[in-house]
Amino acid sequence: MASMKENYAVINKTVLFSCTVFLSRLTFSPGIMRRRVDSHKDYMSWRKSRSIPAIQTRRLRRAKWASTVLVGLDYQEAIIVGFRRLFHYLRGENQTGVQMTWTTPMLTKVHPNNPRKLTISFFVPPVFQGKPPYPLNHDVFLETLPDMTLSVKQLQGGLNTEELLNEASLMTSYLKGRELISDAIYTAQYDQYGRRSELWLVHE
């Protein structure tokens, strides 16, 4: 099985795009982008590690997410297409026609063994967690992410790929000795321009 360091090398052209570029080329109005809520807060608890001040240990509660998978597209195009699919689902392209609030964070799961595959997910708002409406677009699906223990590193907006991978490699070295799931590498974005984004690594 490939090491975490090798996996990061494989994705050196994907993670930056998933953190920063997906909204910059969209044509949606700024007003729409402002109508969002940090609904994840009800499903996530966190504490800062005493031994590693720059990294938080968080517990993500089991919850439903709307997701879509993109394979074989240019990475920038994949992020944009994925966002649009999920946005339309939240804004009424579902079996009940209900319009849901755009939520944060947007997750992008990078698949290290297949760098041209990205899974993009939006958190289903809490009011719909019990029974979310089914998507009309067959490329959008509902999934339940299980309880997860995460190591989380804050990222600064405007990082280039090399800088971001340096952060990821440094984070991995800090976590030496802790069991990580090598095929579960997430980025989480909380605002339009990537000024507030994070790298998530999942523990065994």
Mean pLDDT: 74
The succession of helices and strands, N to C, reads HHHEEEEHEEEEEHEE
The CATH architecture is Alpha-Beta Barrel
**Overall outline:** globular
Main sheet summary: 9 strands, antiparallel
* Sheet with the most strands: spatial strand order: 2-3-9-11-10-6-7-4-8
Organism: Potamilus streckersoni
Pfam families: SOUL (PF04832)
GO molecular function: heme binding
Protein name: SOUL heme-binding protein
Features:
globular; 204 residues; alpha+beta; two-stranded parallel sheet; Multidrug-efflux Transporter 1 Regulator Bmrr, Chain A
Describe the structure.
The chain is α+β, with helices and mostly antiparallel strands and 204 residues long. The protein has a single domain (4-203), classed as Alpha-Beta Barrel (Multidrug-efflux Transporter 1 Regulator Bmrr, Chain A). It is built from five helices and eleven strands, in the order αααββββαβββββαββ. The chain has helices at residues 4-10, 15-20, 30-34, 75-90, 161-174, and strands at 36-37, 44-48, 55-60, 63-71, 102-103, 106-110, 117-123, 140-145, 148-156, 180-189, 196-203. The strands form two sheets. The chain has a nine-stranded antiparallel beta sheet with strand order 2-3-9-11-10-6-7-4-8. A hairpin with a 6-residue loop joins β2 and β3. The longest helix is centred in the middle third of the chain and has 16 residues, at 75-90. It is globular. The model is unreliable at 10-37 (pLDDT under 50).
